[in-house]
Specification:
Strand order of the largest sheet: 6-5-4-7-8
Number of helices: 15
Largest sheet: 5 strands, mixed
Shape: elongated
Order of helices and strands: HHEEHEHHEEEHEHEHHHHEHHHEH
Helix content: 40-55%
Strand content: 5-15%
Distance between the termini: 85 Å
Radius of gyration: 30 Å
């Protein structure tokens, strides 16, 4: 027994068997209960070589195993592996060869094979997660770089059936002006009442865009909105936006800190509207290493924010917090100043924001954009300290 433990701890032996298993082995999957209908039925009797299995299938199988719907094993030719060990260990065919062979076989099955399986499963998962995080990061970067719709005064609709359609009204800077719930979809089907409420908001708040989330009840809500626009001939357009991640944000600590007086559903509708003014992203995000995913996405946001810049008059406190030189407290103070005094018209006003000192201004001013401000340079990446040079050059 001691001899086999020494063999199992020998790095060269294990590495050799690991390489062979990785090369020739397969991931074998079966159902915990074959009679149960689940989303994992495609994997109830499934096998694929370790060397060829794609990353998305690894993540799917891992999730099914975690939910106790699938049993997963690494299958390989155990006899070939044991023979390989014998050739590496045995010298000749002496009187102890038979018991040694029995011990090698037992040691492989009991000690080495489980260890190799754990290592290879971990390697597959790491490979799949690394690739998934890369895709998430790239998709997030593309979303963040989409052009915003400027000057949009928005009615945002988060569709639903039984609980109704949540409505949030936003001005062109993303500030909440009004909110309510309407019931344009079954079972209530209050179409006329919903259209009357839309008309009231359009007139009261000078709305020019209606945003509809693409979730449950989206199509029915879209029909009601399109019919209202056609009948009223109001100078309003509508668009559909992706709801991916909106519910996660609306129920988060961040959202409750930003809007403590609003319920979760209203914050969700607000999020949909703001996506059009300022900004879903891949598969299995909840199965990934959350710390690694957060690091990657935080890096992407910081990169884009400091490369593209941030609209000072529409950015939320959380987004401003990614700007170089702006702390979380200063970001909140900036939003509070904007809500109290109105939209920023020049970068110099930043110096009036509480706790935003000269050093912070020097660090952040070049990344904060003001559209249609007093100075056209405020909409560019030119820093205020270089305005004189820029004007002279122009």
């Amino acid at each position: 027994l001691r001899r086999i433990e020494v063999v199992a701890d020998d790095a060269e032996h294990v590495a050799c068997l690991r390489a062979a298993t990785k090369r020739n082995g397969a991931l074998s999957v079966e159902a915990v209960d074959a009679s149960e209908k689940t989303v994992y039925e495609a994997y109830y009797d499934f096998s694929e070589p370790l060397s060829r299995i794609p990353n998305h299938r690894i993540l799917a199988v891992n999730r099914g195993e975690k939910e106790k719907k699938l049993k997963v094993k690494v299958r390989t030719d155990a006899d070939a592996a044991i023979s390989q060990l014998e050739r590496r260990i045995l010298r000749g065919d002496g009187p102890f060869a038979a018991p040694l062979k029995a011990a090698i076989a037992d040691g492989y099955k009991r000690l080495i094979a489980p260890s190799v399986e754990r290592d290879l499963r971990a390697e597959l998962t790491e490979r799949a997660e690394t690739d998934a995080i890369r895709v998430f990061a790239k998709n997030t970067e593309n979303l963040l770089q989409q052009r915003p719709v400027r000057g949009a005064r928005i009615i945002a609709l988060d569709p639903g059936y039984r609980t109704g359609c949540k409505v949030a009204v936003l001005d062109e800077y993303g500030k909440l002006l009004d909110h309510t719930t309407v019931y344009p979809t079954p079972p209530r089907s209050q179409v006329k009442e919903t259209q009357a409420q839309l008309a009231a908001y359009v007139e009261k708040h000078r709305i020019n865009v209606i945003v509809i989330g693409n979730g449950t009840g989206s199509r029915e809500t879209e029909e009601v909105v399109a019919d209202y626009i056609a009948r009223s001939k109001a100078p309003v357009r509508y668009t559909i936006v992706n709801e991916a991640g909106a519910s996660v944000y609306s129920a988060s600590k961040l959202a409750s800190e930003e809007y403590p007086d609003l319920d979760v559903t209203t914050r969700g509708a607000m999020s949909l509207g703001r996506r059009l003014q300022a900004i879903g992203v891949g598969q299995y995000q909840h199965d990934l290493n959350q710390a690694a995913l957060e690091r990657a996405l935080t890096g992407v946001v910081e990169n884009v924010v400091n490369r593209v810049g941030v609209d000072l008059n529409t950015a939320s406190a959380s987004l401003l917090g990614y700007v170089s030189g702006i702390s979380a407290a200063v970001a909140k103070n900036t939003v509070a100043y904007r809500e109290e005094h109105g939209a920023f018209t020049d970068r110099g006003q930043l110096k009036k924001v509480p706790k935003l000192g000269a050093k912070a201004f020097q660090n952040c001013a070049g990344f904060l954009r003001i559209s249609d401000g007093k100075n056209p340079l405020d909409a560019t990446s030119v820093h205020p300290e270089s305005y004189a040079v820029a004007n002279e050059l122009l």
